[in-house]
Write a structure and sequence with these properties.
This protein is an alpha+beta fold. About 30% of the residues lie in helices and about 25% in strands. It starts with a helix and ends in a 14-residue tail after the last helix. It holds the Pfam family DUF4743.
């Protein structure tokens, strides 16, 4: 079935919007994780709440639960290192007990979780972040080359990678040229330079010279089977967006096991792949954002333009650096 651009948005920005009956209904099935100030910072499903409640206090620390309000106050140790240690001990306990399948994708990478003043509350193992439903951060870069207008519309061709068939998440699907998660303490620029080398063999000097930041794309996903592990986990994300114009003689090549191959495609070839549903869901959104900025997607040729643009930049409900954007 051919997918519309709005279909692609709906497949990624899944979590219902506030002040809707669907939002109220879904919240009634989740637990809201609170910071010490009472600020919501994440959503837990019932199975995750149950696992957290059963985890020994000596591992996780004290837990305050309101079943009426469906809220959880956890990881309230005095300092960030102590909170991070408690989170690490908790998810390691779950991993050693095979509590959640998603932890089979353990990455030994730490993601930051922020409080209401954008302070670092604690860090959490990347593969476990979705269990707590906290906002995670990443970078997505679209690399392109200029070509004559008669060779390709809009005068560009875009580098598109196919994910490895052995990847635990979304194997063999199409991706943005370069994409990756931001670790605790890493800046977006540092992250995109690292990922350009790791995933596309792009030299640092080429990236630094030509990369251009274009704000963020934000959405709230609910994990499904292709993401690997448990389904129904809430995953709010903020992606820092970059474009990179490459010379014709610079070729994107796989430099790790995550990418199978790269294609240099026209806008139309990418549009057809999007319609076929070949792109990883959040990569579809980043591609649509690129098309909006380049005038490929306009009010004149897309009846759902306003809704699409609004939902590419969703106001996430939890605190963090994305609130500055």
């Amino acid at each position: 079935m051919t997918k519309s651009n709005l279909d692609l948005v709906n497949e990624c920005d899944v979590f219902p919007y506030p002040s809707t009956p669907e939002h109220t209904s879904l919240l009634s099935t989740l637990y809201t994780l609170l910071s010490s100030s009472g600020t919501p910072i994440g959503y837990l499903t019932e199975p995750v709440f149950t696992a957290l409640a059963k985890t020994p206090i000596k591992i996780k620390g004290e837990l305050e639960v309101s079943r009426t309000n469906r809220t959880i106050l956890a990881f309230q140790q005095a300092s960030e290192p102590e909170r991070s240690a408690a989170v690490a001990a908790t998810v390691s306990h779950w991993r050693s007990n095979s509590t959640f399948a998603v932890l089979k994708g353990w990455r030994d990478e730490l993601y930051p979780v922020y409080g209401p003043g954008n302070e670092l509350l604690f860090s959490v193992e990347r593969s476990a972040s979705c269990l707590f439903g906290v906002v995670t951060y990443g970078v997505h870069l679209t690399a392109y080359v200029r070509v004559p207008e008669e060779e390709a519309s809009f005068g560009i061709k875009i580098w598109v990678p196919r994910r490895s068939k052995t990847k635990q998440t979304y194997p063999s699907m199409l991706d943005n040229t370069v994409a990756g998660g931001m670790a605790t303490g890493e800046t977006p620029l540092e992250c995109v330079i690292r990922e350009c080398d790791e995933e596309a063999s792009l030299p640092e000097e080429v990236v630094r010279k030509g990369v251009k930041a274009h704000g963020t794309v934000t959405y709230c996903y609910i994990r499904e089977a292709r993401a690997g592990g448990e389904t129904g986990l809430v995953q709010p994300e903020c992606q820092y967006i970059y474009d990179l114009e490459l010379p014709r003689d610079v070729v994107c090549k796989p430099n790790d096991s995550e990418v199978e191959e790269f294609y240099l495609w026209t806008v139309e070839e990418i549009q057809e792949a999007l319609k076929r549903g070949e792109f990883k869901p959040n990569c579809s959104l980043v591609m649509l954002d690129f098309f909006v900025r380049w005038g490929v997607l306009t009010k004149e040729n897309e009846k759902d333009y306003e809704e699409i643009v609004r939902r590419l930049h969703r106001d996430l409900e939890f605190p963090g650096p994305h609130k500055k954007e």
